[in-house]
Structure formats: structure tokens, C-alpha cells
Amino acid sequence: GNSVTQMEGPVTLSEEAFLTINCTYTATGYPSLFWYVQYPGEGLQLLLKATKADDKGSNKGFEATYRKETTSFHLEKGSVQVSDSAVYFCARSQGGSEKLVFGKGTKLTVNP
Amino acid sequence: NAGVTQTPKFQVLKTGQSMTLQCAQDMNHNSMYWYRQDPGMGLRLIYYSASEGTTDKGEVPNGYNVSRLNKREFSLRLESAAPSQTSVYFCASTRIRQDTDTQYFGPGTRLTVL
To answer: For residue A13, is pLDDT > 50?
Structure first.
């Protein structure tokens, strides 16, 4: 089964609202954790990552902290913009390799 | 520097037809991947190649074959397409074989099998 679980979407917010997208994982050892974003009609691109416990990844106002004790990597942004509308994927590395296991994705729509 | 490119962007096939999806990267990356993206399923790994001349199965390899033609190119072949293979296909690459490395994705190929 899928060992990355992220909150079901879709999520609809108004501009400047606070965003949280939950992500939890199961793994042996300490995988690297990633958030990828997919804008409409495009491929995925890295948003941020954290490679060890308690690391915080950040980019474009988004943040996520690697929480070993809760096996979580929740994505947050304090004030979303219309341009943040996209599908967000949580992922973890697999078996110490560069292969990734992805969550199912969460679609975010931000309305003006 | 084009990154990861994929051709074609769109394709419609009839059941039983064959086709090859092309992928190339110009970043001198070692590892390359093929994924499929289906609604509500996220991305699932079909095949990957850790280096030129090597390929390995991923989570959903049935019905597909791959070729790592050289360091730049990694193709995905459907020998006899089935409606269950209707999906969006993404190619990706990473520079090194480390779990901290970032994957770079192509723009995708949207395939419909009738």
C-alpha cells in the first residue's frame, strides 16, 4: 500500500487565507521528505524538501518541518495567493535510494 | 538548457496498437524514471534506470517496456495498448543516486487508449 498519506482534497481557500496540507508517512529508517507542486498542464516541480529530522524546508512562503516523532511533514503557508492554485504532492524517498513514493495529491484552488 | 523533454504531448491509440514515448534530459543526470499519473492515485513508478544500460521495474511495470538508449534518453514502449493504460505519463531524472536528490520532471504525455 501507499506509505505516504496526505489529506484528501480538493481544498478551496480565499486569497490571503492560511493553508495547511497534512502529510504523514510510514517508513523504516529516516527517509528524505519532499513537497512537489504541479501547476495546471505542467509536470511536477520541487517545492521544498527536508532530509533529516527537525529540518524545515521552505520556499515561496511555504514551509514544512520534518517531524520524526509524529512521522509528519505538513505543508503550511501563511497567506495564499491565486497563483498558488495547483496540485500538491507529498513524497518520501524509498529505501535510502533516489526513488520516491508519492501521496495521492491535494488539489488547492485559491479564489480572489 | 531544456531540462527534461517528452514527446509526444498528446496521443490517442486504439486498443492493441503500439507506441513509444520518448524522453530526453540535457542535465547529464544519471537516473531516469517513468511514472503514470491517474486521478486519485498520485504518481506510480513504472520503470526506472539508475544508469546507462540498466533498467529496473517499479510498482506498475506490466504492459510496458523501456530502453535506456544512452545517458540522455529513456523511452517507454507500449506493445499492445489497453484502455487501462489511459493516463498521463511523466518522465523524470535525478543527478545522483542519493535519497536527498531532487527529481526533475518533464511536461508529460497525455495518452488515451480507445
So the answer is: yes
Strand segments (E) across B1-114: 4-7, 10-13, 19-25, 31-38, 42-49, 56-57, 64-68, 74-78, 87-94, 104-105, 109-113
Portion 16-75 of B in contact with A at CB < 8 A: 31, 33, 40-45, 48, 58
Strands B42-49 and B56-57: antiparallel
- Which amino acid does the sequence have at A74? H
What average pLDDT does the segment B79-102 reach? 90
Distances (CA, A) of A112 to A15, A16, A86, B19, B61: 5, 9, 15, 43, 42
Cell (9 digits) for A51: 532530509
Q: How confident is the model at residue B93 (pLDDT cuts 50, 70, 90)?
A: very high
